Amino acid sequence: MFRIVVAVLVALLAVQARAQVTGSATFVSDYRFRGTSLSDDRPAAQLAFDADWPSTGWYAGGMMSNVRLDSSHAAQLLGYAGYVRRLNADLSWEGGVRYTRFTGGESYAYAEAYTGLTFRQLVGRIYYAPNYFNAGYATWYAELNDSIALSGKWYAFAHAGYLRRAGDVAEYHVSRFRSDVRAGIGLTLQPWDIQLSWTTAHGAPDVALGYPSAAGTSRNAWVFSVAYAW
Questions:
Q1: Which among 45, 114, 115, 117 has a CA at the least distance from the CA of 75?
Q2: Which of 84, 96, 127, 153 could pair covalently with 141 via S-S, beta carbons 3.0-4.6 A apart?
Q3: For residue 169, what are the contacts with CB-CB under 8 A and spacing of at least 6?
Q4: Hey, is 145 helix, strand or coil?
């Protein structure tokens, strides 16, 4: 899967159409991924970039973040590439692949393929990872994301996700499912964006899903973030 991501990125760079490139730098009080803290309930700094080729429908991008895995500091490196097609004024379809790995002794490297639909501000996606966090089993993850404008520069946003892992979980005596929810408010002060949200997760524990161990992390947390975009 990693070779597929690289091949797609190389193909995109070869496209003659000029790309529209944007980027952002973000500080978060806790880096939460699908309800799990990848920063051990601690702050994290992140850099991201996106490149779009509007005339072709192709896009690509990447993200870097400091993390804390297995009680050690590390960095997450994520790259993705995809294709989006507008079906009508309100509805669009997309599909793509992404690859994630971490620095340190254990890379936890894995790839995912995804597809989704966007209707106005509502975004729904389904992800499939054949070897989630390099733990030896596949997972499916479905999510819905939405946002709504409030008064002035304020807005509200929400996320709901549901993960199912394959393989035997009898040794853990737990469920193979997990749900996560995130909701909050944001303030846009271009080029700054400020958010405060509440996140929670229910179901299978981190160890049953292949996530790196982070003793003492909470399933419920307030998360504050400040992002600067260019």
A1: 45
A2: 127
A3: 175, 176, 204, 208
A4: strand
- In tens, the pLDDT along 14-55 reads 544 578 999 999 999 999 999 999 999 999 999 999 999 999
Q: What is the CATH number of the domain that holds 115?
A: 2.40.160.40
Residue 99's domain comprises 2-229
Q: How many domains does the chain have?
A: 1
Q: Are 28 and 224 in contact (CB under 8 A)?
A: yes
A 10 A CB-CB count for 193 gives 18
Question: Within 13 Å and on the Cβ side, how many CA atoms surround 77?
Answer: 8
Nearest to 35 by CA among 223, 229, 226: 223
Q: Where are the alpha helices (DSSP H) in the chain?
A: 2-14, 206-209
Q: Which residues of 126-164 are buried (b: 16+ CB within 10 A; e: fewer)?
A: ebebebbbbbebebebebebbeeeeeeeebebebebbbb
Q: Which residues pair with 182 in a beta bridge?
A: 159, 199
